[in-house]
Amino acid sequence: xxxxxxxxxxxxxxxxxxxxxxxxxxxxxxxxxxxxxxxxxxxxxxxxxxxxxxxxxxxxxxxxxxxxxxxxxxxxxxxxxxxxxxxxxxxxxxxxxxxxxxxxxxxxxxxxxxxxxxxxxxxxxxxxxxxxxxxxxxxxxxxxxxxxxxxxxxxxxxxxxxxxxxxxxxxxxxxxxxxxxxxxxxxxxxxxxxxxxxxxxxxxxxxxxxxxxxxxxxxxxxxxxxxxxxxxxxxxxxxxxxxxxxxxxxxxxxxxxxxxxxxxxxxxxxxxxxxxxxxxxxxxxxxxxxxxxxxxxxxxxxxxxxxxxxxxxxxxxxxxxxxxxxxxxxxxxxxxxxxxxxxxxxxxxxxxxxxxxxxxxxxxxxxxxxxxxxxxxxxxxxxxxxxxxxxxxxxxxxxxxxxxxxxxxxxxxxxxxxxxxxxxxxxxxxxxxxxxxxxx
Length: 440
Hints:
Blueprint: H1 2-5, H2 12-26, E1 39-41, E2 47-49, H3 52-65, E3 69-71, E4 80-84, H4 86-93, E5 98-101, E6 105-109, E7 112-114, E8 118-121, E9 128-132, E10 143-145, E11 152-163, E12 185-188, E13 190-201, E14 208-211, E15 229-234, E16 237-239, E17 246-248, E18 252-257, E19 260-262, E20 277-281, E21 286-296, E22 300-306, E23 314-324, E24 328-334, E25 349-359, E26 373-378, E27 381-391, E28 404-407, E29 411-421, E30 429-430
Parallel strand pairs: 3-5, 4-6, 5-8, 6-9, 7-10, 8-11, 9-11, 10-12, 11-13, 12-14, 13-15, 13-16, 14-17, 15-18, 16-19, 17-20, 18-21, 19-21, 20-22, 21-23, 22-24, 23-25, 24-26, 25-27, 26-28, 27-29, 28-30
Antiparallel strand pairs: 1-2
């Protein structure tokens, strides 16, 4: 099996060049947005968005300009898992322009709001635990920026576990209160943000959310104001989230790397209808990169999508993703814009995906009526999938369902180096295809 897995193994630089060349064949020209989808490779061989070095300059600027360092303990915080530390955090953070140190312990709070130019650093995952107070509202966000309307900038969070404390709610209660609330960490209208080495558990809605001021459901083609921009999410993990692990809405230039999301509760939804994804690039998001992430036992491993009354996510690059036992490992769709009598999507375009692995997609109680797929592409156009390995469980009856479905109004789709093995009674690849002569 190892030999089969490596059948399409390609050096990263070659893979990027090959994928870009294929993408040029399917993308309609002129299309200036393609130029903003460039990926660079570091000396260590890591793929990065072309804009990331500029974000690193902003981080150096933040770190060099902050001269004040405070420990929350000096402001009365007690990490005993009982004391309400809300006021202690508020006093320590002040108006920002400071670095806040949180030592080991369990620090209970009703929510932390970070102003601009703030660094918040714990002792590490599982060592520093920030936990929502038992009396916190269902709408509470454990950590967020201070001004969702006017916006904030230069916020850095690292080295902690965030516990939304879902046990404070009734066991049969849905866990989210609507829009971009009820999450472990939300950046809403933030420019220049970093979240590194953070764990989020049992979020009511999302583990991590990069959002605009609000989620906008107005119409396809609408570009929502108050967008977050230039955000790096790195080495994150989450589980037990009510909806999605990592999600983005109406925001631009986001990099998600080396993160793992698994085992959602789905409790933000009606039982059996939980569209709970490991990583979801949602409504109106643009210029998003995913590199070397993984997901397990979610409804969707990676979902790129939009609701029917919002713009679709566009200009998305995926480099290396492992999906294990997700119901739909890779799901690209614009709801309400993919069937024959639907209006065609104005915004569902431009996806480059390479070096993907889907292992044993399965039925799930999260979304009971959803049949398993390694990949679904609906409504999107200008999509290249290059080097995709799909491995099934030979003891699992796939009941004649297609492993990959290219369907409805998907156009200009190019699949290259696809390897499928180990499925029992599967239907293969489903779709009607026309291969241009220059691609044969």
